[in-house]
Design goal:
Low-confidence stretches: none
Protein name: 2,3-bisphosphoglycerate-dependent phosphoglycerate mutase
Radius of gyration: 16 Å
CATH architecture: 3-Layer(aba) Sandwich
GO molecular function: phosphoglycerate mutase activity
Structural class: alpha/beta
Helix content: 40-55%
Mean pLDDT: 95
Distance between the termini: 17 Å
Catalytic activity: (2R)-2-phosphoglycerate = (2R)-3-phosphoglycerate
Number of strands: 6
Number of domains: 1
Function: Catalyzes the interconversion of 2-phosphoglycerate and 3-phosphoglycerate.
Number of helices: 8
Keywords: Gluconeogenesis, Glycolysis, Isomerase
Strand content: 5-15%
Largest sheet: 6 strands, mixed
Amino acid sequence: MTKLFLVRHGQSLWNLENRFTGWQNIDITDAGIEEAKKAGIALKGQKINIAFTSVLIRAQHTLTIILDEMGKPDIPVIMDKALNERSYGDLEGLNKAETALKYGDEQVHAWRRSYDVVPPGGESLKDTYNRVIPYFEKEIVPLLRKDENVLIVAHGNSLRALIMYLENLSPDEILEREIATGVPITYIFDEHFHVSRKEN
C-alpha cells in the first residue's frame, strides 16, 4: 500500500520568539534540529522514493536532517514555493502578542484562525489551500498512484491545507487541527487511492 508522510519543520527561531514567520527565510533552532532528528529516527526503515519541500530554509534543513537520520541522503528532493507557509504579509516579523495589543485580540485571532480572512498583504488559509492542492494533484498524486512513497516536509498551514483535502474536512474542522513540529503523520492509501489509514 502506498504511503504519504507529512512532517512540519522543526521549531524555528521565530516560532520560539512568537513572531509571524510566513515566507520569511528563518532557520530552525537547536530544539528544531533535535525534533528533525527524532522525525528521522521515527521514519527509519520506511521506504521513501521521493521527497518534496518548500523553498524555505527551515523546511529544507529539517528534510536534510530527516534523510540523514534515515540513512537515505540521496533520495530525490523537489523544492517548490507552492508548499511554502501561508504568507502573513505585513505581519511577518511582528510579535504575535504585541500585534494583538495593537490591533486587538479579536482581529489578530481572525487573521490567524479564520479560513478566509486575509491578513494585510498576506494570504488566508483558503488562499494557501488554492495553491497547495493543485500542486499536490499535478505533481504528487501521479507518483502516489504509481505506488511511490512520498515524504513532504513543509509548514503548519500548507500541511493543514493538505490534511483538509486528504481527510475531507470542513473549514471549521481544519482550524481546530494543530500540527506539531517535527512529528511525522502517515497516510496509507488503498488500491482505489482512498486513505485507508492514518498513523501519527
